[in-house]
Amino acid sequence: MAPAIAQNVxxxxxxxxxxxxxxxxxxxxxxxxxxxxxxxFTINPNDEADPNDPEFxxxxxxxxxxxxxxxxxxxKIIQDLVKICQEWGFFIVINHGVPESLMKAMIDSCHGxxxxxESEKQEFxxxxxxxxxxxxxxxxxxxxxxxxxWRDFFKVRTHPEFYSLNKPASFSEISLEFSKRTxxxxxxxxxxxxxxxxxxxxxxxxxMNMDRGLQMxxxxxxxxxxxxEHAIGIPHHTDHGLVTLLIQNEMKGLQVEHNGKWLTxxxxxxxxxxxxxxxxxxxxxxxxxxxxxRAIVNNKAxxxxxxxxxxxxxxxxxxxSPELCDREGQAPKYLAxxxxxxxxxxxxxxxxxxxxxxxxxx
Length: 362
What we know:
Blueprint: H1 22-28, E1 60-62, H2 64-67, H3 71-87, E2 90-94, H4 100-114, H5 118-121, E3 134-138, E4 152-159, H6 171-196, H7 203-207, E5 215-222, E6 234-237, E7 243-248, E8 254-258, E9 261-264, E10 272-276, H8 278-283, E11 293-295, E12 303-310, E13 317-318, H9 322-328, E14 337-338, H10 339-347
Parallel strand pairs: 1-2
Antiparallel strand pairs: 2-10, 3-4, 4-5, 5-12, 6-11, 7-10, 7-12, 8-9, 8-11, 13-14
C-alpha cells in the first residue's frame, strides 16, 4: 500500500533541491523546527498497540535450547515456532552466542561511518541495484520516492562473497566477524523452522541453495526529528528474503504489525529481532507469515539499526514446497519466480510501496 500523505500538517517549506543526507539536513539547519514538506508523512497514534497488553507480548526464543538443550527442550522450542511463525512472523532470539561486545562494536562502527564527512560517504554512492557490492544513500530511492524518508543508509553484500566499506578503519574487520556469526544464527533458525514444518532440518537450506545464499549488512541512521509524528524512517514493508536479523542502539523505533496494530518492539540489548520474509511465506505456501514492519523516528536522539537479511541464492527459483502442498492437500498459492527477479520487482517503480505478493498470487 502507498504511504498516507500528511494532510493539514504544519511543515516547513524549506526543502533541499538536492538531497544528499537527512543527517546533514537535520544537523545543519538550526531553524529546523518542523518537518520539511517533502518528508511529511502521517502516523495515526490510534493504530499503535499498548505494549503492556499481553496480546502484544513479543515471543522470545532461547536459542541455547535449540543448540545445547535436551531433546525435549529442543522439541518444545520447535513446536513453539509453529505458532509464532503462523501468528507473528516475528520473535526475539536470546542466548544466541554472538558476543554482546561484538554487537556493540558493530553499532559503533556504523555510527563511525555515518559520522564521516559527507564527501567521504559519497564515495560509496551507487545505483539502486540491491545486489551491488555496497551502496550509500538517503531515503529509499530518490528517483521514485513520493515522500522522502527520515533516514540515511548503507548496504553491503557479505555473502556469498564478502565485501566491506573501508571506512572507518575498523569497519571491515568487525563487519566480517559480525556477518559470520549472524549467518550462523540465521542458519540455525532456518534449520529449526524447517523442522517446525515437519521437514528435514536441511530442507530449506538445500532447496534455497543457502550455501550461495544472499546475505546483506544494512545500516540505517535516523537523526533526531523535530516532529516525529509527521515523518517516517521506513514505511510499512515486508523483506524480500527468508529471515532478517536486526539490532539497534538504545533508541527504540522498530514497529511490527500484529493483529491490526503497530507494536513498538523492545527487547534485551543482547537480543536479535528476527522477522520472517517473503520467500519464507512463498515456500510455505502462506502457512508462515512475512511480517509487515516499519521504522519510526523520535525527537530525543539519533537511532541506528543494523539489519542482516538472509535469502536464497539469487539464481534460485522459489515456489511453494511440493512436499508441503501435497501434505496439506493445497494447490500452490504463489507463482514460481527467480529470486533475483523478485528483488528487482520489489524495487521497481511499478511496485512502489506495494506488496510484491500482489504480482505472484495464483
